[in-house]
Write a structure and sequence with these properties.
Strand order of the largest sheet of chain A: 2-1-3-4
Shape of chain B: elongated
Helix content of chain A: 40-55%
Largest sheet of chain B: 4 strands, parallel
Order of helices and strands of chain A: EHEHEHEH
CATH architecture of the largest domain in chain B: 3-Layer(aba) Sandwich
Largest sheet of chain A: 4 strands, parallel
Number of helices of chain B: 8
Structural class of chain A: alpha/beta
CATH topology of chain A: Rossmann fold
Number of domains of chain B: 2
Helix content of chain B: 25-40%
Strand content of chain B: 15-25%
Oligomer: heterodimer
CATH class of chain A: Alpha Beta
Distance between the termini of chain B: 28 Å
Order of helices and strands of chain B: EHEHHEHEHEEEHHH
Largest interface: A-B, 19 and 20 residues
Strand order of the largest sheet of chain B: 3-2-4-5
Number of helices of chain A: 4
Radius of gyration of chain B: 22 Å
CATH class of the largest domain in chain B: Alpha Beta
Distance between the termini of chain A: 22 Å
Number of strands of chain A: 4
CATH topology of the largest domain in chain B: Rossmann fold
CATH architecture of chain A: 3-Layer(aba) Sandwich
Shape of chain A: globular
Amino acid sequence: MPFTPNIQAFCCHYTSQQTLAEGPEGLRADGFPKSVTIHRLVCTGKLEVSTLLKAFEDGADGVYVAGCPVDKCHNLMGSQRAAKRVGAIKKALAELGVEPERIEMYHLERGFHPDFVKAAQEMDERITTLGPSPFQGGAK
Amino acid sequence: MIIAERKPINEIMDMVKDAKRILVLGCRGCVTVCSAGGEREVEILASLIRLGKQKAGQEVSTIEATLVRQCDKEYVDSIDQWDGQYDAIVSMACGVGVNFIANLRPMAKVYPGVNTLSFGGSAEQGVWSEQCAGCGNCVLHLTGGLCPVARCAKSLMNGPCGGSVGGRCEIHKDVPCIWQSIHDKLVRIDNKEGLAAIAPIRDWSTAGHGGPRKTLRNDLTV
């Protein structure tokens, strides 16, 4: 049976404006993968490490964060902070023997941009290749 | 404050490999301030432990709690509220907290969730530096307030070694030679006596070389 990944995306208000402009159907028409569930935030700088870990606990095979460009965050340093938290989780995943690529940080232009869809497609392809999360099928 | 940092998660997973119910116990003291073992870090570690156990295909439940301090009996006693609900405790306090739980609850399996590093301060956001060695015989009045015991790689007492170059320590260019700093400070505050003073051979028995140290204050005991 083909594997359909469960990918949770945490996107700031500004980078995910495309979701508002196009709506779910419009995004799908643009090629946004069905495997990705979007969580919109006021700013990725507000994202806690524990929130990202909980996504894995809740069954995510992959997680990514989309925030503003490094030097052009609407809230100055929010996306930089998010990137550091993603980095901390990559390190912890590696220590647990899990592929660090299962979580990623994307710095995207704000507003309506095709890169928003490209990031989702890249993660869909990456996680499909990696396969189901090693955290799944554990405790019975 | 006491500076600590979380141990690698695989090291912690090995400690708790036989435990199914784990009390992850933080401390609101120093380790909260240095972001190593407060409420937020307890939440993160508990999540990582659950994920590690999930990956290993093992059942686990976690209790997350944070005590006011783990270095006082009155607060450590409060862990009794979870009696019978855990197989092991992972303490995110400094080593003092782990020892206190081990002392006071002889039957408890308690493991360290952090490495205790130094007595230091926050030099800038996310950076902590050692400032004091807790040597038990403070000489800061002679050295312009800058500690040669903690901040000189050789703990020298009478000026820099031959490896000091350009005000930097020979162990690393990012480490200032504290004896250069002491000299500069004493010149700035015009402490000629301090500059000329020769420190006698030091008695290190107060620094733990005479065995574990105990402080007794008769005015406070009951």
